[in-house]
Amino acid sequence: MHKHGLSLQLACQIDWPEVMARPDTRRDYGEVREVGFAIIGRRLYCVVFTQRGGAMHIISLRKANSREVKAYVES
Question: Which Pfam families does the UniProt entry name for this protein (predicted)?
Answer without folding.
Answer: BrnT_toxin (PF04365)
